[in-house]
Amino acid sequence: MKSKGVFFRLLKYMGKYKLLYAGLIMTMLAGIALDLSVAWFLSQITNAAVKFEIDRWPTLVAIGAIILVGASLTSFFDTYLKQKASVKVRNDIRLDTMDHALRLHQDYYDRTHTGDLLARFTSDNQAVGEAAGNIVMGLLRNPLLALCAFIYLLNIHWPLALITICVGPAMILTGKMFGESMRIKGARLQEAMGRGTSYLQDVLGASVLYKIFGLEKKISKQYRQFSTDIAEIEQSQGKTQGAAGAVSQVIAIATFMIAILLAGYFVAKGSLEVGAMLAFIQLMNYLVNPFALLPALWSSMQQALAGADRIFQVIDAPKEYAELPTPSRAKSSFSEIDVSSVGFSYTGDVNELALHDIRFRVHAGQTVAIVGGSGGGKSTLFKLLLGLYAPTAGTIEIDGKDRGAIGLREYRDYFSLVPQESVLFTGSIRDNILDGNPTADDEQMFAAAKQANAYDFIMKLPEGFDTEIGERGSRLSGGQKQRIAIARAILRDAPILLLDEATAALDNESERLVQDALSRLMVGKTTLVIAHRLSTVQHADLILVMEHGKIVEKGKHHALLAAGGRYQELYQAQLMNEEQETLVES
Ligand SMILES: Nc1ncnc2c1ncn2[C@@H]1O[C@H](COP(=O)(O)OP(=O)(O)OP(=O)(O)O)[C@@H](O)[C@H]1O
């Protein structure tokens, strides 16, 4: 997006705090008046001194004191209000980003590293906050101060004032010259930071893996590359900023010198008072300094706008819902799911189908096992069933209606999910189980925990259900996390359960507790399970064998085994696996 468009969008966020910005503008105007009064004050003191007007001194001291008090007050309010405005705008943008991120299509999450999204919430947000406070006010105050100083200068000595104002166009040109380059470097920097944060997130969340595999040196080397990229862009930014600063300094000093030489000349000729010359010097500062600051402010604004653009990309990305959906209320029943000629492509290209012509029907209460080799399309089928992606061809209907007719939230209310790796959120065990049904009371929560074989271990924890589980459940064992996730699914009590069986074996006792919990969860439910266990497939009402995105065999265990096809191969392989596991354990 063009930086102008980005700026106007940022302005909308700022517009919510009109009073605050009105206060800031008043403070700014008072500050400028005080600055100018210092020049006037200088001229008064000098003229009184030159004319030996000693009796004016008490008044001059009083004026000096008033200027001092005014300056300290405006300085306080200026800093305080700018900070307040910046914090409020940042907070609103952060909340808005979250509000939109929660509604993004799964496709966005599958394509984008979460670290990159995190950078938009952190470093980009920080840059935008700066823009809404210090930078925008600086961009307003400096030209206005320069303009007021110029008008005052015109009053003192107009030919001198006109010579001095030449600094303006030269500085604006400098700003333009370096601003675009700063904006491009700013965007590159934020992207590099996004990549660095993504990498950090992967590595710091996998401490056990890098310790065991001895990857410390490799990771340190790779991170050096990310860090060096960031440092190089920052250095290059420094160069551009330095060059912009140097050019503006040269212009400022040259203008200053010419004006002073001329002012001195006019005093010597008797056409300018000494007091007026002192006021002139002070006013020159107010004219030249703002122009010297403008290029740097302008480039910081460009950099902040590059950050804002990255945030607005998240806000503008296609969403699943127009508003945040109402909390889920699981459906109580259904009769049939009909998957009819479903085809799907992640890329939208019909030549790259991840699923081809998938057809099957499930009746309430049945268990369907989905088996097949890696990359066969099992998880993709789950994603479609859960409404995370829409089929490219064909339909998925529940009781004769597809998700378009039912509405996405309501469609998802038919489902509960137990993923392969249990995901728990930061918070207490209670919070996590109640995610299944926030309206459940303690009795229902305890009953769910008991069914999930989780109650006893939870009660042994120091704070029972109120125990904080730590980041991603890090303070719990794998089996404990799974049982909490199962308790959550039990409390949800949705009629269709999608279960991705864990491939990683737990120890015997833990495995038994988890399996037992899962069988209780499945009672009375329709279950579609990506199955890795023989016991699950043997008892399924329907087995779908998936290879290369197609259902290559379909039926019940004995019939498929007798057919001697792909299912039999998979079954034999799994049988050998489980026999080996039993041998290792015994
Ligand atoms: N987000 C994605 N974008 C593009 N292609 C994808 C995406 N996710 C999966 N695929 C591709 O779709 C195909 C099916 O993958 P899927 O994860 O559904 O297989 P799977 O049967 O669940 O495999 P596994 O048993 O190994 O988990 C694979 O070729 C995979 O590379």
Characterise the protein shown here.
By secondary structure, the protein is α/β, with parallel strands linked by helices. It has a domain at 3-190 and 232-316: Up-down Bundle (ABC transporter transmembrane region fold). The chain is 66% helix and 10% strand. The strands form 2 sheets. Strands 6-7-8-3-9-10 form a 6-stranded mixed beta sheet, with helices on both faces. Strands 2-1-4-5 form a 4-stranded antiparallel beta sheet. Helix 2 (18-50) runs antiparallel to helix 3, helix 2 (18-50) packs parallel to helix 6 (123-156) and helix 5 (114-121) packs across helix 8 (167-204). The longest helix has 54 residues, at 216-269. The model has no long low-confidence stretch (mean pLDDT 87). The structure holds adenosine-5'-triphosphate. Adenosine-5'-triphosphate binds at residues 110, 346, 354, 372, 374-380. It is a multi-pass membrane protein. The chain crosses the membrane at residues 20-42, 62-81, 160-179, 246-268, 274-298. Its main location: membrane. Keywords: ATP-binding, Membrane, Nucleotide-binding, Transmembrane, Transmembrane helix.
